[in-house]
Write a structure and sequence with these properties.
alpha+beta, DNA-binding, 7 helices
Length: 291
DNA sequence: CGGCGGTCCTGTCAGC
DNA sequence: TGCTGACAGGACCGCC
C-alpha cells in the first residue's frame, strides 16, 4: 500500500510518538526481508535517543544520536505499529508477546522487528510479504547510501517543476505512467497515484512520455502535488492511537477517482472506467476523458 | 544505457 | 468445502 503519502503519514505519526525517547532494546524477531536485517542493530542503537523521523522517497528514517539512521521500507505489505504502555493486552496476548494490532485483532504473524523504548512503548515492524527492509546508515552519509544514491526527484522539493518534468519525459520512449513510477527519476509515486494523477491531468496512461507537451507536463506537475497533498491530509486525519500503514481506516481510497473502479462510471463523463496491464501492473483510466 | 520481464513472499478471492 | 490460479499498493536484477 505504501506510496509517498502513506509513508509520510506513518513518519508523522511515528515522530509524534517516539521523538526524544531512548531506545532500550532492539529484538530481531525475523531477519528475513528483502535485505536481511543487520544483526548489530541492538549494539549500535541501544541507549541512543531518537532525534527525529523523516521520510525519504518511500523510506522511513529514524534518526538517532551518534549520527545513525534506522532505515525502514514497507514494501507492499509492511506496517509499523507503536504500542504504548497503556495498550491493553490480555494475559494470553502478553504471554504470546502479541504486538501487532489490526482491525481490532492482535496478530502475531510476520513481526520482524521490535524496538523497546524508555517509556515502555514498543515499535513493531511487521511485513507479511517480506518485500520491505530494515537497515542502518550514518545519518551524514544517507544521500550516498546505496538505496538513495540513484534516487530521483522528491515531488515536494524545489527541483520538481513542470519544466524539469518535461525534460525527463522528452527523453523517455515509454509510457508516461511507467516514467511517473520510475523511482530513479521521480520518487514516491506508485501504481495508485500514477493512475489518479493521469486521470486528473486528462492524459492517457499509455501515451509515450516523449510525446507530452509543455502544457501536459504542467498539468501532471500540478496534479501530482495536489493529489499527494490531499492524500497526506486524508491520512493524517486518521492518525489516532497508533501508527498504521494500511488503507483500512478511512484513507484516501475513499477519494480514488479511477483506481480500482473498473466498470464504474467515470466521475466526469459516466463512461465505464477501464483496466489494463502496463508492465505487469494494473492501470485504471477513462478512455473518453484521457487522451 | 533504456526498457522490459521475472522474481522475491504470503494472503485472498474468484471460479470450478 | 477444497483446490487452483490470478493477483496485490515495490523495487532490484539480469537480459536483450
Amino acid at each position: 500500500m505504501p506510496e509517498l503519502p502513506e509513508v509520510e503519514t506513518v513518519c508523522r505519526g511515528l515522530e509524534a510518538k517516539i521523538k526524544n525517547h531512548t531506545i532500550k532494546e532492539i529484538k530481531i524477531l525475523n531477519p528475513k526481508l528483502r535485505i536481511p536485517i543487520p544483526s548489530n542493530l541492538n549494539s549500535k542503537l541501544k541507549n541512543k535517543k531518537i532525534l527525529q523521523v523523516k521520510r525519504k522517497a518511500k523510506y522511513i528514517l529514524i534518526e538517532t544520536e551518534g549520527d545513525l539512521s534506522l532505515i525502514m521500507h514497507l514494501g507492499m505489505s509492511g506496517r509499523v505499529v507503536v504500542l504504548d504502555p497503556n495498550t491493553k493486552l490480555n494475559a494470553e496476548q502478553k504471554l504470546e508477546k502479541i504486538f501487532y494490532y489490526h482491525q481490532e485483532k492482535f496478530i502475531i504473524k510476520h513481526n520482524h522487528l521490535q524496538i523497546n523504548l524508555d517509556d515502555g512503548s514498543t515499535i513493531i515492524f511487521n511485513d507479511t510479504r517480506k518485500f520491505g527492509l530494515v537497515t542502518l546508515s550514518k545519518s551524514s552519509e544517507i544521500n550516498q547510501h546505496k538505496l538513495f544514491c540513484k534516487s530521483g526527484i522528491e515531488p515536494f522539493s524545489s527541483d520538481f517543476s513542470a519544466t524539469k518534468l518535461h525534460e525527463i519525459f522528452a527523453k523517455r520512449n515509454k509510457s508516461v505512467k511507467s516514467v511517473l513510477m520510475d523511482a530513479s527519476l521521480i520518487v514516491g509515486i506508485g501504481n495508485i497515484y500514477a493512475s489518479e494523477i493521469l486521470f486528473r491531468s486528462r492524459i492517457h496512461p499509455e501515451r509515450l512520455a516523449s510525446t507530452l507537451s509543455a502544457k501536459n507536463c504542467k498539468e501532471i506537475h500540478k496534479h501530482s502535488l495536489e493529489i499527494l497533498e490531499e492524500a497526506i491530509k486524508a491520512g493524517g486525519s486518521t492518525l489516532k492511537d497508533y501508527v498504521h500503514a494500511d488503507g483500512n481506516l478511512g484513507y484516501f481510497q475513499n477519494n480514488f477517482q479511477v483506481y480500482d473502479r473498473e466498470s464504474h462510471p467515470c466521475l466526469i463523463c459516466k463512461s465505464k472506467i477501464q483496466s489494463i496491464k502496463q508492465n505487469g501492473r494494473s492501470t485504471f483510466f477513462c478512455v473518453k476523458c484521457q487522451k
